[in-house]
Design a protein that fits this description.
With 335 residues, this protein is of the alpha+beta class. It has three domains: 66 residues, Uridine Diphospho-n-acetylenolpyruvylglucosamine Reductase, domain 2 (2-Layer Sandwich), CATH 3.30.43.10; 113 residues, Uridine Diphospho-n-acetylenolpyruvylglucosamine Reductase, domain 3; 103 residues, UDP-N-acetylenolpyruvoylglucosamine reductase, C-terminal domain (Uridine Diphospho-n-acetylenolpyruvylglucosamine Reductase, domain 1). 26% of the residues lie in helices and 28% in strands. The protein has nine helices and 20 strands. A five-stranded antiparallel β-sheet has the order 6-7-12-10-11. Strand 6 and strand 7 form a beta hairpin. The longest helix is centred in the last third of the chain and has 19 residues. The chain binds uridine-diphosphate-2(N-acetylglucosaminyl) butyric acid (EPU). Uridine-diphosphate-2(N-acetylglucosaminyl) butyric acid binds next to strand 13 and helix 8.
Length: 335
């Protein structure tokens, strides 16, 4: 257990702030031991993974628990599938690379997403037409009240767009320790997303392998999204809003170019487009700003504070609300 721990390198926004207490755990047993400590029983706690989806707006007056449980193990294999159990503390992109190197498909579209494996199901990470729920089998989580390990299958996780039970009724009540993914030995290439097929064409690839799709995704992400090692950011700051078809048609009457994708009888808008239309793309306010290649990404140019980022987000939300009557919802956890 460390006291007054500086968190700059533990959050991808690179916000300099302190946690009153900090502990890194490497095993399920260490979580059980932690339960007996006063820092756990008497103070608030926050479970940290890769720190890629969190904005600290000040020092954290409690206990930060960083999950670093490692391991990859095949627990079942059939003619078509590999069931791979992965420790929650494994790095997501390293897992993707490992799967591709072994010839196991299903996660190649999710290449280069920052963060850890245990956080992937919490917000059902997704990119380029694939979400983690598409390859998800089950996860193990410790119930912080009973200290029993519970298994959550896909249904119990209640996955939605950037959403799961762990952002709702189960929030703060569990620590996810391992995730089992069902990977494909027989590949189903998913190159339907416009940017992927375009990039594969440019790469001169006609019959893409999972490694080709991964390369294309990496190329697209590197061209649009800032590298958190160089410029602090947390990926998409807001969720893409989902509205009724009627509301979408009403917007289309005024904005014929407004992008929209049908989802379950509703329409998902591109928050980046809405923000862009309000003139925010590439704008800088002091130490923070809106990324020049993707209006959905807020960046810390170096010495920014969480409050500066939050104030910028509030200004953007106000403008989008005034222009389009749409309330943007942050995707990032704001602490
Ligand atoms: N657009 C703009 N201005 C911009 C950027 C985009 O107008 O500055 C418009 C374009 O019309 C584009 C549309 O927005 O067609 C959608 O943009 P893009 O394909 O880049 O994806 P996105 O909807 O902005 C989502 C995810 C990303 C994910 C990409 C690719 C969310 C909140 N974000 O972004 O996820 O990588 O799709 O699948 O769903 C993340 O969650 O951190 C993340 C980066």
């Amino acid at each position: 257990m460390e006291e007054n721990k500086i968190l700059t390198s533990l959050n991808t926004f690179g916000i300099a702030c302190y946690a009153k207490y900090f502990v890194e755990i490497f095993s399920v047993n260490e979580i059980i031991q932690l339960q007996k400590k006063s820092q756990f029983t008497e103070l608030p706690h926050y479970i940290l993974g890769g720190g890629s989806n969190i904005l600290f707006t000040g020092n954290y007056d409690g206990l930060i628990i960083k999950v670093s449980i490692k391991g990859k193990e095949i627990i079942k294999e059939t003619d078509e599938h590999i069931f791979l159990k992965i420790g929650a503390g494994e790095n997501w992109h390293e897992l993707v690379a490992y799967a591709i190197n072994n010839g196991w498909g299903g996660v190649e579209n999710l290449s280069l997403i920052p963060g850890q494996v245990g956080a992937a199901p919490v917000q059902n990470i997704g990119a380029y037409g694939v979400e983690v729920k598409d390859v998800f089998e089950e996860l193990e989580a410790i119930n912080l009240k009973t200290l029993n390990t519970e298994i959550f299958d896909r249904k119990a996780c209640k996955f939605g767009y950037r959403d799961s039970v762990f952002k709702k009724e189960a929030k703060g009540k569990y620590i996810i320790t391992a995730v089992v993914l069902k990977l494909n030995k027989k590949h189903r290439i998913n190159a339907g997303y416009g940017a992927i097929s375009k990039t594969l064409n440019e790469m001169g690839v006609a019959n893409p392998s999972i490694a080709d799709v991964s390369r294309a995704v990496i190329q697209i992400r590197q061209s649009k999204l800032p590298d958190p090692k160089k410029t602090g950011n947390g990926g998409s700051f807001f969720k893409n809003p989902v509205i009724s078809d009627a509301a979408y048609q009403a917007l289309q009457a005024n904005y014929p170019d407004i992008p929209g994708h049908p989802v379950d009888g509703q329409v998902k808008l591109a928050a980046a487009w809405l923000i862009d239309q309000c003139g925010w793309k590439g704008k800088r306010l002091g130490n923070v700003g809106v990324h020049e290649n993707q209006a959905l990404v807020l960046v810390n140019y170096g010495n920014g504070t969480g409050t500066e980022i939050k104030d910028l987000a509030t200004k953007i939300m106000k403008d989008v609300s005034q222009k389009f009557s749409i309330d943007l919802e942050p995707e990032i956890n704001i602490l």
